[in-house]
Amino acid sequence: MNAVTTRASAPTTLVVLAFACIYLIWGSTYLAIRFAIETMPPFLMVGARYLVAGGILYAWVAWRGEAARPTAAQWRAALLLGGCFFLMGNGGVSWAETRIPSGITALLIAMVPLWMTLMETYLRRWSRPTPVATAGLVLGFLGVAFLIGPGESLTKAAVDPLGAAALVLATLGWAYGSVHAKDAAQPPSLLQTAAMQMLCGGALAVGMGFFVGEWRAVNVGAISARSALAFAYLVTFGSIVAFSAYAWLLQVTRPTRVATYAFVNPIVAVFLGWALGGEEVTGRTLSAGAVVIAGVILILRSRARAAAP
Questions:
Q1: What confidence tens digit (pLDDT) does each residue in 197-232 have?
Q2: Ramachandran sector of residue 278 (left: φ over 0; alpha: ψ -120 to 50; beta: rest)
């Protein structure tokens, strides 16, 4: 895809295909992660995924002649953002999926726009949330509380508390990285920026895997065909194809339209987890998920109105 395509000249068919990529592929990555970590340690899997994807993407950008020589400040920014996105974000998701179904994981990850709104308001002091955005925040957090609160009894949580805590940290990391990225030092090429962040985040995730002792569980011969295929899917489609589509969409359409993936991905993930992963979908999951997604929709609608001329 040509990154310099303008909004006015972007072919409708390509725009639709790019949205299908970020909706369907990113929505499917939650189940792919669950399959990958069946026989691969979570942090080392994440590290290998992004080192491979980042290396391929960087080589492709360099081959096209679009890579600039990164400065030290740009590498420092890539290290920070890579840590937020791929160590805390994807690493937290992968570890949490050892304890929580992929569909529920995706619903909790929908918290990211909620945290971003709060961070933009109270950390960056850009603007205070509108009444619509405030209603979205309240709905979103009520939905999350309902999803992870007491289950069949007051002494039993509906969702594993350690897994839920990991996902809260993952969403905080992704949200902070998203907000901080607006002012971070970056090369002119969005794809080179993504490749640098993947390489740094992958290296940090590998380091975390060794720190927590995952290397002891590594047995290449025991990796199943399903885990290997899921890993290949995450590298090629989840990291390279979908992110390239995402970066291109940011160039040719409004960011608030692109952000709609935040409430489509959980729907796709819950369906695939049920249809292909044998995950149970309860009335509580559907109700809580609907409330969370409604909150995200209100926030995104509020941003769209604020951005309108």
A1: 999 999 999 999 999 999 998 889 999 999 999 999
A2: left
